[in-house]
Write a structure and sequence with these properties.
The chain is α+β, with helices and mostly antiparallel strands. It contains nine helices and nine strands. The strands form two sheets. The chain has a six-stranded antiparallel beta sheet, with helices on both faces. Strand 2 (64-67) and strand 3 (70-73) form a beta hairpin. The chain is elongated, with a radius of gyration of 24 Å. The N and C termini lie far apart (67 Å).
Length: 259
């Protein structure tokens, strides 16, 4: 084959319906806020019957809204997009502060946000020592089972916490995690008043606190975690807690939070 020739693309794995759905979402912008099914079909070059199922699916999932005969972008697109951008902003802001905290303590530091009832790990400052606790980015752990997760739950009121966990079987989790909703609500209320959480598990200890945004709301959580042998000596936890709270204040300040 001549090197100037363009090889044919392998389309065996393409999903036409998905491609059309993404094309539909891409039709909307600052100038084009709404479109009818006929306009969408014409832009795709297909019949209205062919595009109907795509529009129904996107509307049902919240990516589109339908008003009379017009379609427009739904809240799902906006919320997902801003959640992604917000998480990127938090990582970029927090990274240098967490790296500095790791260097000052020789302990692993992590950053997480809440997704439903999970704590999603977005960043870790790796402690390069033999005895260290390092949880990979992308890990999800049930919020009520971890120090960072519990701090993330402090953003919710009692009613919001109840609504979030109304269908969750808490007694499926091992102790010391709370096993009932009232127990969880009491635990989170105490965490909120204290402003930090200490949690022990598997010969390691984690201390976590919240990071707040410009509205004063809990936007993320950070922690310091290490083996009990490092965390237990007299005065160690107090020193590490002070450094963690100092780091949280710096990150929150950079996110626009003012006490």
């Amino acid at each position: 084959m001549n090197i100037l020739e363009t090889p044919e693309k392998d389309t065996d794995y393409s999903v036409p319906a998905l491609a059309r759905g993404l094309s539909v979402l891409g039709m909307f912008n600052a100038r084009t806020r709404s479109l009818s099914i006929q306009e969408i079909a014409e832009r795709l070059g297909v019949s209205t019957s062919a595009v109907y199922r795509i529009l129904f699916t996107l509307t049902n999932m919240g990516y589109l809204n339908k008003h009379n005969t017009q379609y427009e972008l739904g809240a799902r697109v906006i919320s997902d997009g801003f959640s992604y951008l917000a998480s990127r902003d938090i990582v970029e802001v927090a990274m240098p502060h967490l790296n500095e905290l790791r260097d000052r303590t020789s302990l692993s530091c992590h950053l997480s946000i809440r997704e439903h009832t999970d704590s999603l790990y977005l960043y870790r400052a790796f402690a390069a020592q033999r005895l260290s606790v390092n949880i990979p980015v992308g890990t999800r752990i049930a919020c009520h089972c971890t120090a960072m997760g519990r701090m993330l739950l402090t953003a919710l009121s009692d009613n919001e916490l109840g609504a979030l966990y109304q269908h969750i079987r808490l007694d499926d989790y091992p102790t010391p995690a709370p096993r009932t909703l009232p127990e969880l609500q009491a635990l989170i209320e105490g965490d909120r008043n204290l402003g930090w959480v200490l949690h022990r598990s598997d010969y390691s200890t984690a201390i976590a606190t919240a990071v707040k945004d410009h509205n004063g709301k809990v936007a993320a959580a950070i922690n310091l975690s290490g083996p009990d042998a490092v965390m237990d000596p007299a005065g160690a936890k107090e020193r590490f807690l002070g450094l963690l709270l100092e780091c949280s204040a710096k990150i929150s300040r950079d996110l626009g939070h003012r006490d």
